[in-house]
Write a structure and sequence with these properties.
Strands 3-2-1-4-6-5 form a 6-stranded mixed β-sheet, with helices on both faces. It starts with 7 loop residues before the first helix and ends in a 20-residue tail after the last helix. The protein is elongated. With 287 residues, the protein is an alpha/beta fold. Helix content is 39%, strand content 12%.
């Protein structure tokens, strides 16, 4: 399966961001904690050069904790400020104000020396589709400022949101990059829901997820579905379909229904806390 999804509005959004970056002091980049590297748009590093940078490991409650810590170390070594957050519950959001002040200390000092008082830090919130930007903004602001939806492509335009005297946020549409050089990146993004499900091959995606879970998180599938994991991935897939009653007329297995169930269970955390990729050189933090 070839993973590509780049609607026309993303080209426009990218141009808009390149213009707006001139007004920005800080880039707040949301990534999905389950795929912190795959859910980063490499264009943002280029666009954000010379700006303070904060990475938020969003949905960190769905990723395993050892991997969360490993990814924090990874990004800190590269010079980013990093926080673990869960935008839905609000976990970790209180720490952001202090980190913003720290990240923008030079800018605030410069303003003070020039006699500029009370000019707010201007932060651009960026991230790929369905990573939780709008949910983050609404939780952080304590009110509904941004449209939200459990599918990619809900935010189409930009909007400024004044949070308090010291901070303004610019919400931007989620943008992917036009071509995935590594199809594994596309596959991971499909697993977390950042590519529209309508264009995906559910069977192939579910089989890839089952293969990964067998190797990296042994026991999770058998615990959830009562299947025998020591078989080939396809046999595990078939057993899951049988055990969960995913049967069509004529007693044929309904692979589509079983595959969608496995993918949904992963996305909703019903298979436990799972990270799909790990920093190079780090132990896989399974179980």
């Amino acid at each position: 399966m070839n993973y590509q999804w780049y609607p026309g509005h993303m080209t426009k959004a990218r141009r808009m961001m390149q213009e707006d970056i001139k007004l920005i002091d800080l880039v707040i980049e949301l990534v999905d904690a389950r795929v912190p590297l795959s859910s980063r748009n490499p264009d943002i590093d280029e666009m954000g050069k010379g700006r303070a940078r904060l990475i938020l490991l969003n949905k960190s409650d769905l990723a395993d904790e050892k991997s969360n810590e490993a990814w924090m170390r990874f990004f800190e070594k590269k010079g980013f400020f990093v926080l673990k957050v869960n935008s839905r519950s609000g976990m970790g959001l209180k720490a952001i104000n202090g980190v913003v002040q720290e990240a923008c200390r030079e800018k605030l000092e410069r303003d003070r020396r020039r006699g500029i008082k009370n000019r707010p830090v201007r932060a651009m919130v960026v991230g790929i589709p369905n990573v939780g930007k709008s949910t983050f903004i609404n939780s952080y602001a304590g009110r509904a400022c941004a449209k939200t939806g459990n599918k990619p492509g809900v935010t189409k335009g930009k909007q400024w949101i004044r949070l308090n005297k010291g901070l303004e946020l610019l919400d931007t549409p989620g943008i992917l990059w036009p071509k995935f050089e590594d199809q594994d990146v596309g596959m991971r993004l499909a697993m977390i829901g950042s590519i529209r499900d309508e264009i995906l091959n559910t069977d192939e995606l579910a089989l890839s997820l089952i293969r990964f879970l067998k190797n990296s998180y042994p026991g999770r599938l058998s615990e959830r579905y009562g299947c025998e994991e020591e078989q080939e991935p396809l046999a595990v897939y078939e057993e899951i379909a049988r055990n969960r009653g995913c049967i069509q007329r004529g007693q044929e297995l309904d692979y589509g229904k079983a595959g969608a169930m496995v993918i949904d269970d992963f996305r909703n955390g019903k298979l436990g806390r799972i990270t799909l990729e790990f920093p190079e050189g780090e132990m896989q933090a399974a179980q």
